[in-house]
Recover the amino acids of this structure.
């Protein structure tokens, strides 16, 4: 077995990696792994091998693999520019935009590094790493927003990620895949889709219950024991149930029914769309260090995004809700979304469904309840009541997606319908404005001049 270039400079390291590679099975190729690998490229190590110093050669080999081993490497300067814009006071809008752009390659590199670590930990731990770091950007943004007390930003950004995966990503993939494969069938395995949609329905039920409880108490139909904290207590209980369901889902996915989630095998093409890795290119210690570093940089840019979102909202005259629900998910998950579309063009819809539905399920059943539990420990009253418009949009998105995927075969019209649903929801959140005196416990919407004038005439 040939050794990666960076291993040749250290016989001890090479021996260690070869032994561990043979003792442990390689990481199971998940849909998320394959989606990210579609944006990778083979780095040229010929110049690195000419460096005489062994330590410097190993360092350059690491930099070559981590920073240049992706087709998104041109976006890495945005990370440095975002930091520079912060310290040089270029303006909060510039910091917001550059931070969003910088998060795109970081998300793809986090997926690459977790896959490298999985070579040493085995497929089960590797799957848990993917379950943890698959949506690390959303988790970090949510934690910083909670720290600043921006509960609505947390709710809207997580809701937007789910809607984006279900309608925008899946819709774009099915539409473009259908156009590119008009003369061919587009089958997919319904079993994975059924599992994910079932969990998503459970998740939206946990969102509906606090909402319905609030309206039932206001209308006087029911009385509650815990008073003003009834919805909060119910949300925390539902969050624990959702986390337990997610743990059961991981056991189902990684142990008992892992064959359902095995992606289709994809052969490498001449255009190098997919870079498959049969052996690690980084040492375990190097991968861990890079993973910690990339996570810290992601946390830094996420903090910039949270702290400057109001400035961007005022500058662009867009509501924070619209930016959080529409713009943040589109940019933050651009790398993963691009991978899903690429595999749809190659008529590998099982991988596309694994990416879009898997991400939506992970956010709905893990990130959202985790945010509620973390807020609970911080003494912050975040609940699962996402308000009527947001929860209704989520329910209808899941319903439309479930009906779209019930046949086991796709065509471009299904993708177009999902995209149109996303467009309508986007317009809805574009026209609403939250009042400046809103707090996190209630939402009041101004829906236009017409309604204001009607109320004035009525008075």
């Amino acid at each position: 077995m040939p050794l990666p270039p960076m291993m040749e400079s250290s016989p001890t390291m090479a021996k260690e990696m070869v032994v561990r590679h043979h003792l442990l099975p390689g990481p199971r190729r998940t849909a998320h792994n394959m989606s990210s690998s579609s944006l990778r490229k083979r780095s040229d190590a010929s110049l690195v091998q000419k460096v005489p110093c062994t330590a410097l050669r190993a360092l350059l080999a690491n930099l070559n693999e981590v920073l240049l081993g992706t087709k998104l490497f041109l976006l890495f300067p945005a990370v440095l520019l975002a930091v520079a814009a912060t310290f040089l006071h270029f303006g909060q809008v510039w910091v917001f935009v550059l931070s969003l752009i910088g998060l795109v390659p970081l998300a793809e590199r986090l997926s690459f590094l977790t896959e490298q670590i999985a070579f040493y930990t085995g497929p089960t731990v590797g799957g848990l790493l993917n379950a943890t770091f698959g949506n690390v950007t959303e988790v970090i943004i949510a934690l910083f927003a909670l720290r600043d007390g921006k509960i609505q930003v947390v709710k809207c950004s997580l809701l937007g990620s789910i809607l984006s995966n279900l309608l925008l990503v899946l819709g774009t993939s099915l539409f473009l895949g259908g156009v590119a494969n008009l003369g061919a069938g587009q089958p997919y395995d319904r079993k994975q889709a059924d599992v994910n949609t079932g969990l998503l329905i459970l998740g939206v039920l946990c969102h509906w219950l606090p909402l319905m409880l609030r309206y039932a108490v206001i209308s006087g139909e029911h009385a509650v024991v815990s008073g003003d904290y009834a919805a909060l207590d119910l949300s925390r209980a539902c969050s624990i149930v959702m986390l337990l369901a997610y743990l059961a889902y991981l056991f189902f996915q990684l142990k008992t029914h892992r064959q359902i989630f095995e992606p289709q095998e994809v052969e490498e093409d001449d255009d190098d769309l997919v870079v498959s890795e049969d052996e690690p290119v980084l040492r375990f210690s190097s991968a861990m260090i890079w993973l910690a570093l990339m996570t810290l940089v992601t946390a830094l840019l996420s903090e910039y995004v949270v702290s400057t979102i109001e400035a961007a909202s005022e500058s662009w005259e867009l509501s924070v809700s619209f930016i959080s629900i529409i713009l943040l998910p589109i940019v933050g998950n651009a790398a993963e979304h691009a991978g899903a579309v690429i595999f749809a063009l190659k008529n590998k819809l099982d991988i596309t469904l694994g990416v879009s539905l898997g991400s939506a399920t992970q956010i709905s059943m893990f990130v959202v309840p985790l945010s509620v539990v973390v807020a609970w420990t911080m003494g912050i009253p975040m609940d699962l009541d996402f308000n009527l418009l947001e929860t209704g949009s989520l329910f209808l998105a899941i319903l439309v997606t479930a009906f779209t995927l019930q046949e086991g075969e796709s065509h471009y019209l299904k993708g177009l319908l999902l995209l149109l649903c996303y467009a309508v929801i986007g317009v809805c959140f574009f026209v609403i404005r939250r009042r400046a005196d809103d707090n996190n416990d209630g939402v009041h919407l101004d829906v236009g001049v017409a309604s204001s004038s009607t109320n004035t005439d009525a008075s």
